[in-house]
């Protein structure tokens, strides 16, 4: 599979950086976004910005979708005026959005019926990872498809083939449970230190390199200490993932008590009007729960 032309669908917080990196890696990239203004800034990097999703897909060897949710992916890719109807047979659709496992599997079947290869390849690493090209990419598809797409993935981060279609989305759910739980644990630890009379910044420094250290502790912990939550990832997106994971667990007969409590904390934050706050702002919710 030779890849020279890429259609990129969805240029939000992460997607814009990802599309830019693909263009800088030498691919001819055409982009579409439902809110056109968000894509205009990419023109200065040589990307072609189009008004219709079909225009981005029609001549692409690979179409990358970085949309906000499973329903939005269904609508744009397979709904009325489906983008996939404009894709060439033998081309590849790479869905890098965080979507439910069953959605990825159903989309994979629909794509196959249209003669299109399908990869569910959600990512972890946030805006920083998208900007710097250090995303963790979890790919669900045939192994030879991942091999063929390595030049594409290399511009975005590190790809791991985790299994067949659906396995990528399953890996992302596991990732999100770990991240969300760590964010809450870090918030509680820093709150305990602060209320107990220790300097949270010094605590953060002391724990680096120990068993408590992690990417969440290093980056989100620092942001909590500095109250630096802008722009970040909204908390309302966190509960989309925790809710999806808990629904899948229930269908498998599993009870996940830690994930259930973490989901409750984030939902409480959203219910209090904090849905657009960065998910690291869970510490704000914890302070509300524990007033002085």
What is the beta-strand fraction? 5-15%
CATH fold-level assignment of the largest domain: Rossmann fold
Low-confidence stretches: none
Note the main sheet: 6 strands, parallel
Coarse shape: globular
Distance between the ends:
61 Å
How are strands sequenced across the largest beta sheet?
3-2-1-4-5-6
> What order do the SSEs take from the amino end to the carboxyl end, as H and E?
EHEHEHEHEHEEHEHHEHHHHHH
Structural class: alpha/beta
Overall helicity: 40-55%
Q: How many helices?
A: 14
| Total strand segments | 9
Query: What's the number of structural domains?
Result: 2
CATH class of the largest domain: Alpha Beta
Quickly list its features:
about 50% helix, alpha/beta, about 290 residues, 2 domains, three-stranded mixed β-sheet, globular, 9 strands, six-stranded parallel β-sheet, N-(1-d-carboxylethyl)-l-norvaline Dehydrogenase, domain 2
Structure description:
- This protein is an alpha/beta fold.
- The chain has 2 domains: 5-164, NAD(P)-binding Rossmann-like Domain (Rossmann fold, 3-Layer(aba) Sandwich), CATH 3.40.50; 170-289, Orthogonal Bundle (N-(1-d-carboxylethyl)-l-norvaline Dehydrogenase, domain 2), CATH 1.10.1040.10.
- The protein contains 14 helices and 9 strands.
- It has helices at 15-24, 37-40, 53-57, 70-78, 101-113, 126-132, 143-148, 150-154, 167-196, 200-207, 215-226, 235-251, 257-274, 282-289; strands at residues 5-9, 28-32, 48-49, 62-65, 92-95, 117-120, 123-124, 135-140, 157-163.
- The strands form 2 sheets. A 6-stranded parallel β-sheet has the order 3-2-1-4-5-6, with helices on both faces. Strands 7-8-9 form a 3-stranded mixed β-sheet.
- The radius of gyration is 20 Å and the shape is globular.
- The relative contact order is 0.10.
- The mean pLDDT is 91.
